[in-house]
Design a protein that fits this description.
Number of helices: 0
Number of strands: 12
Order of helices and strands: EEEEEEEEEEEE
Shape: elongated
Distance between the termini: 52 Å
Length: about 180
């Protein structure tokens, strides 16, 4: 890519973008998804899985800021590897369970590649159960996010002024929801 757009931030925290050199972006993305396997069992009635991943080798090329060259540095804000998985289960012909995982490799947080994030591995689990009352369906949902209580960052400010890159994500959280269908 020629004249790649790079994010900058001034001392007031205001963002601006500049065209800065070229990037070489090579990689692969994978998605595997199964059909819903129905199982004739009184306890476990169905299983489905989904797996996706991205594997990148993104680099700056002919990129300079003032007298500093960023050529051959990893592209800022892009993890080399992300892997996501989701398992769907159906129990007792009603109870839906989704078990998911998200892995993100470390991420360069500035163009100089002098600051990197840590890799993270986050798991979630969700339970869904429908109740029927005459002509009304009530769907109950309970979810545990960040199941393993991982310390991670949900979004980074790249090339941040004063090296303020981090906005920590919540630790383990619990959600309960109800959905009515009339």
């Amino acid at each position: 890519m020629k004249d790649a757009i790079v994010r900058r931030q001034n001392e007031n925290g205001e963002e601006y973008f500049v065209n800065q050199g070229n990037t070489v972006q090579k990689g692969a993305e994978v998605l595997l998804e199964s059909k819903n396997f129905k199982i004739n069992n009184p306890v476990l009635n169905g299983v489905k899985f989904r797996f996706s991943g991205s594997f990148y080798n993104f680099k700056f090329e002919n990129c300079r800021q003032n007298d500093v060259s960023f050529s051959r540095n990893d592209l800022t804000g892009v993890p080399a590897t992300t892997i996501n998985s989701l398992l769907n289960f159906m129990f007792f012909k009603k109870l839906g369970v989704d078990y998911s995982h998200y892995y993100t490799s470390r991420i360069p947080l500035n163009d100089a590649n002098s600051v990197w994030s840590d890799a993270s591995f986050v798991g979630n689990i969700q339970f869904r159960y429908p109740l029927l009352f005459d002509k009304t369906q009530v769907n109950m949902l309970f979810q545990i996010q960040n199941l393993y209580n991982t310390e991670y960052v949900l979004g980074y400010d790249i090339n941040a002024f004063g090296n303020r890159f981090y906005n920590p994500a919540a630790k383990r959280t619990f959600n309960f929801g109800v959905n009515f269908i009339f």
